[in-house]
Design a protein that fits this description.
By secondary structure, this protein is of the alpha/beta class. The chain folds into 2 domains: 169 residues, 3-Layer(aba) Sandwich (Rossmann fold); 154 residues, Dehydroquinate synthase-like - alpha domain (Dehydroquinate synthase-like, alpha domain), CATH 1.20.1090.10. Helices cover 44% and strands 20% of the residues. The radius of gyration is 20 Å and the shape is globular. It starts with a strand and ends in a 7-residue tail after the last helix. The structure holds glycine.
Length: 374
């Protein structure tokens, strides 16, 4: 399969490489003095087999392995400093590659640590969740949470490559798989493909996967092209606007609401919290309600999205009163002054950007003409 390239000023700045099997990563690791593996402890078996393959094919290149706790609570500067200490203790240098293996939390922290260690060493990712394969591990956003706000510290710096392979998804817990579906569907709401059918086809497949035991294993061959399409859409957007001065903002569809939901859910500290993709699904439905309230979307759009998300197993009713979300939305990274760039779906495949204050958005969303009950 051909690589997907992220291009800036005519230069390839990052590549997305697809493999059928994990071992297909090996050619990508050639030529580095050392490879340092940073992995989520939940995928230690996979990290172990990649490390063994490195030892077998490139003797003495494995510089070390470090497992991390990849939770939102541990997505902080302490963990990043731990990774930097590990790199320093094991003599990582600019000819080395730091390889992050895990979901978005792991790839965000690995990329951030590699970006600040010795003012920047090379890094690459093996995303092991659907969410990271279609979104988090592509495009170079790296960072950590700060003062309970998501991804408040970080840099944009591109991985050498992101290696996408369906194998790790086969053992992914179902809730994590479903959570990742939200970012895939988000991408197809932004770009519905040349035949204008990618969103509906993806919903159909994700619904089948959700309702079939071992659905990911059974349908992985059919799933891979959708993962690749979503990754390609993101690569295109990032190529045109790496530093989010314009077009890249559309990738934040639903995210202003989602980050506020995640912030409130973290404050509650009860139960299992709300996963990022679940919050994104809720956020997209709220963005559609806002869009409908502004007369941009047809009034049926929020209901349709909520119905589709439910089909694939995503919760989409926001559990918090909207007024409570206003403060958390105001500290959104995407705010400029008191205005936030809201990405509003107009229809499947089309979005518009509208600058509103958090208060305006909340007032409009709660007073909107559409009530979305599912
Ligand atoms: N997850 C949104 C972006 O990478 O820009």
């Amino acid at each position: 399969m051909n690589d997907i390239e992220i291009i800036n000023s005519g230069k390839v700045i990052s590549r997305i490489v697809t493999g059928e099997w994990i071992s297909d990563i090996l050619p990508q690791l050639k030529g580095y003095r050392k490879v340092y593996v940073i992995y989520d402890k939940n995928v230690s078996a996979l990290a172990g087999s990649i490390s063994e393959m490195i030892e077998d094919h490139y003797p003495s290149v494995l510089g070390g392995m470090m497992g991390i706790d990849a939770s939102e609570q541990k997505k902080n500067l302490d963990t990043v400093m731990g990774i930097c200490s590990f790199l320093l203790d094991n003599n990582a240098d600019r000819k080395s590659l730091v390889l992050g293996i895990g979901g978005g939390i792991t790839t965000d922290m690995t990329g951030f640590a590699a970006s600040i260690y010795k003012r920047g060493v090379k890094f690459a990712f093996v995303p092991t969740t659907l969410l990271a394969q279609v979104d988090a591990a592509i495009g170079g956003k790296t960072g950590v949470n700060f003062h309970q706000f998501k991804n408040m510290l970080g840099v944009i710096r591109q991985p050498e490559f992101t290696f996408i392979c369906p194998e790790p998804l086969e053992t992914l817990p179902q809730r994590d798989f479903v959570s990742g579906s939200a970012e895939m569907l988000k991408t197809f709401i932004l770009d519905n493909g040349p035949q204008n059918d990618r969103y509906e086809s993806a919903c159909h497949l994700l619904e089948k996967i959700h309702s079939t035991p071992d659905g990911v294993i059974k349908y992985s061959t059919r799933l891979l092209p959708f993962i690749i399409s979503a990754a390609a859409v993101k690569a295109g957007v990032v190529s045109r606007d790496q530093f989010e001065n314009g077009e890249r903002r559309i990738l934040n569809l639903g995210h202003t609401f989602a980050h506020a939901i995640e912030h409130l859910s973290a404050e509650e500290e009860t139960g299992q919290g709300i996963a990022h993709g679940e919050a994104v699904a809720m956020g997209i439905v709220l963005a559609a309600k806002l869009s409908a309230a502004l007369g941009i979307a047809n009034s049926h759009l929020p209901e349709r999205l909520a119905r589709d998300f439910k089909r694939v197993g995503l919760p989409c009713e926001c559990p918090f009163p909207l007024e409570e979300m206003e403060k958390a939305m105001s500290v959104d990274k995407k705010a400029e002054g008191d205005k936030i760039h809201f990405i509003l779906p107009q229809s499947i495949g089309h979005v518009v950007v509208k600058d509103l204050t958090a208060k305006e958005a909340i007032d409009l969303t709660s007073g909107g003409t559409v009530i979305c009950i599912i």
